[in-house]
């Protein structure tokens, strides 16, 4: 495997640092919410907007930000996004009331979307060697997984020791250092110019559609079935966007990128897989705390083997396997391991024992360390140097869509099943376990569907790059 040069290691470090901040900020605030509510006087109905405002801005602007990165230059978009994120973090840390904090969180989402939408585009145009790119994607995927695991732990530590303000203020020095390093490390790129894709109506349709879609998901507990109307309007706006892109003179998103079986299939598999993985990331933790009565520290330690296995596989195993066998084969193997993990969870008993009922799941979940890098490779495989930011934005958007859909579907099903069992006279532990088992069963079905899509759609001929050599040739670096 090719060794990554020092200059490219710096690029990878800068990109990974931004990815880490983005993922952390999606979860770090959750454990600080009681302290925020107490200090700023949030009404209970308002408190969730400290999370929702970030998610709506972030998920809604990813595709637009990715395309704008191609048009004005991905380096400029990356630097501007980090600057907006750092400034918004300072504003959030200094918030004196609910409105100020919610507004700052929205701006944080804007900054995160601007920076993270072009990250993969910069990565695949920088690492054109097949071996280097496989290793870089493994490190990048590990960073995302680590951020998801560290967010709640770090949020609790900072809130308890320094105050909730510091979960935001810590981003400021990190952001400043990241910008300084990025100025030095990232190659300049000219961009295509706004005239190459300045579709104002298309931008309005896709941004409004994505934001409304995420809003319908995060508000499902409040509005119930009525949130389906928001979802329907969202789908109508997105359909209108697709029609617009097919007819616009300078489309914001040329539809040719979706003609690639690798790109379309990888994004569909990602939605199904990440929707299913919500059951592991959140529902397993809830099961440990609410049924088995683990405390927060015990839950974190119990899930540590999963984080370590994913980290080890994504860093050291996945790059070698992808280079030798190709991303499709690695993806299928990883999905088999995840299917095994979720099948194991569907039989979890009320009095589960860690060593026999949960530890095997923590080991099998290493499949995520194979799946995530492989999906990234396939999802970016059709990117060209002039649209890598757009393809990156599409990939990040489906990532957010999968997670949001998983939250809405699985949490609703689990809660409904639990309420039904409680109404039938079951104990709280039995009812909760029944609800969680249903969530695990649906997740298993989603993973099996993801495997079927990967097997059929991502077939080798015309869809699977062998060690991505062909794509590496197409992804020549931008000229300075």
Protein described:
This protein has 480 residues and is mainly α. The protein folds into two domains: 1-198, MFS general substrate transporter like domains (Growth Hormone, Chain: A); 256-480, MFS general substrate transporter like domains (Growth Hormone, Chain: A). The chain contains 22 helices and no strands. The chain starts with 5 loop residues before the first helix and ends in a 6-residue tail after the last helix. The longest helix has 36 residues, at 388-423. The radius of gyration is 22 Å and the shape is globular.
Measured on Cα atoms, how large is the radius of gyration? 22 Å
- Following the backbone from N to C, one meets helices and strands in this order, namely HHHHHHHHHHHHHHHHHHHHHH
Provide the CATH topology of the largest domain: Growth Hormone, Chain: A
What is the CATH superfamily classification of the largest domain?
MFS general substrate transporter like domains
The N- to C-terminal Cα distance equals 27 Å
CATH class of the largest domain: Mainly Alpha
Q: Count the E strands.
A: 0
Features:
single chain; 480 residues; mainly alpha; Growth Hormone, Chain: A; 2 domains; globular
Quick structural summary:
78% of the residues lie in helices and 0% in strands. The protein has 22 helices and no strands.
Give the secondary structure arrangement, pairings included.
Elements: H1 6-27, H2 33-40, H3 44-47, H4 49-72, H5 74-93, H6 98-116, H7 119-126, H8 130-161, H9 166-169, H10 171-185, H11 200-218, H12 220-223, H13 227-247, H14 261-290, H15 296-302, H16 304-325, H17 327-345, H18 354-364, H19 367-379, H20 388-423, H21 428-456, H22 469-474
Helix pairs in contact: 1-7, 1-8, 1-10, 4-5, 4-6, 4-11, 4-20, 5-6, 5-10, 7-20, 8-16, 8-19, 11-13, 14-19, 14-20, 14-21, 16-17, 16-18, 16-19, 17-18, 17-19, 17-21, 20-21
């Amino acid at each position: 495997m090719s060794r990554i040069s020092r200059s490219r290691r710096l690029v990878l470090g800068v990109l990974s640092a931004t990815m880490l901040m983005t993922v952390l900020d999606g979860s770090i605030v959750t454990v600080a919410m009681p302290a925020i509510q107490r200090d700023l006087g949030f009404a209970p109905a308002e408190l969730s907007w400290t999370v929702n405002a970030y998610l709506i801005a972030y998920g809604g602007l990813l595709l637009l930000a990715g395309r704008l990165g191609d048009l004005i230059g991905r380096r400029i978009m990356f630097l501007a996004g980090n600057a907006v994120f750092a400034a918004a973090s300072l504003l959030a840390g200094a918030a004196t009331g609910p409105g100020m904090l919610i507004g700052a969180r929205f701006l944080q989402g804007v900054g995160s979307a601007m920076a993270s939408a072009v990250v993969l585009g910069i990565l695949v145009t920088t690492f054109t060697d097949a071996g280097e790119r496989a290793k870089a994607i493994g490190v990048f995927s590990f960073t995302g997984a680590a951020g998801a695991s560290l967010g709640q732990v770090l949020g609790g530590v900072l809130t308890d020791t320094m105050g909730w303000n510091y979960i935001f203020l810590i981003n400021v020095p990190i952001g400043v250092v990241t910008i300084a390093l990025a100025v030095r490390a990232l190659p300049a790129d000219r961009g295509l110019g706004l005239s190459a894709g300045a579709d104002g109506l298309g931008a309005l349709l896709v941004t409004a559609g994505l934001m409304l879609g995420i809003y319908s998901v995060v508000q499902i507990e409040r509005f119930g079935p009525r949130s389906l109307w928001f979802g329907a309007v969202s789908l109508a706006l997105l359909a209108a966007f697709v029609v617009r892109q097919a007819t616009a003179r300078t489309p914001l998103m040329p539809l040719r990128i979706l003609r690639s079986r690798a790109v379309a299939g990888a994004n569909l598999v990602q939605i199904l897989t990440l929707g299913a993985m919500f059951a592991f990331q959140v529902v397993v933790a809830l099961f440990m705390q609410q049924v088995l009565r683990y405390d927060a520290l015990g839950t974190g330690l119990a899930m540590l083997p999963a984080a370590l296995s994913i980290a080890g596989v994504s860093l050291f195993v996945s790059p070698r396997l992808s280079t030798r066998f190709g991303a499709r084969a690695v993806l299928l193997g990883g999905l088999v391991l995840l299917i095994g993990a979720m099948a194991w969870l569907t039989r979890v008993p009320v009095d589960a024992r860690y060593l026999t009922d949960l530890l095997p799941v923590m080991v099998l979940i290493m499949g995520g360390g194979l799946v995530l890098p492989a999906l990234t490779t396939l999802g970016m495989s059709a990117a060209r140097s002039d649209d890598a930011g757009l393809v990156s934005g599409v990939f990040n958007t489906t990532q957010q869509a999968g997670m949001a859909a998983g939250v809405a579907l699985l949490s609703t099903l689990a809660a409904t099943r639990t309420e039904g069992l409680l109404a039938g006279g079951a104990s709280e532990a039995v009812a909760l376990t029944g609800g969680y088992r249903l969530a695990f069963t649906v997740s298993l079905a989603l993973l099996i569907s993801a495997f079927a899509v990967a097997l059929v759609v991502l077939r080798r001929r015309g869809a699977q790059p062998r060690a991505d050599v062909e794509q590496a040739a197409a992804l020549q670096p931008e000229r300075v």
